[in-house]
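Support request, please re-run this one:
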Amino acid sequence: PNYFDPEDFVYRGNDEKEDYFLYLGRVYGGKGCDIAFQAAERAGVRLVVAGQKEEGYQLPAHVEYVGYADVEKRKQLMSKARASFVPSQYVEPFGGVQIENLFSGTPTITTDWGSFAENNLHGITGYRCRTMGDFVDAVQSIKQGKIRSEDCRLFANNFSIDSVMPIYEKYFQDILDVYEGKGWYADGNNIEALTKQYP
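Re-run finished. Output below.
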């Protein structure tokens, strides 16, 4: 997995959030921004869009485009949003922005494939959606406070530098065991490193 320094994020609880949803990423169809635009409009919520816009890409009038977000701007946008859309239309190999939002205490509304099937705990850290109706329902559930910011942060801690380091150490030791001829039958190598914390 990718890894993050928790100190790089501002955590805000449910009662500290502002009244907007966020789409942060490259602004083009492959990242699913059209889904975020439509879901926000159907749910009647404010959508702030940040990221590099593909040349010629037209944004609908109901979204608030704030342009490219540097590290500090991203930090603030993610921490203050009620939730963040990450509706990638391809099989996302990791989706770092999804975990960054969780570090900020911000639930994520994602598609239901790729890394999200593992890294977005449905109904706990956000919602995984398969239809437009699902995306709208997810927005409504988050508005009702059904996802707790502290659960998002707790699960995100599985991707802190300290949590990921032993996973990489185990992986490299497993490779070394193959190189040295022990392979499948090598003695155990810190199976506990693969344990995750769940809310």
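The CA atoms of residues 46 and 167 lie 39 Å apart. The first helix runs from residue 33 to 43.
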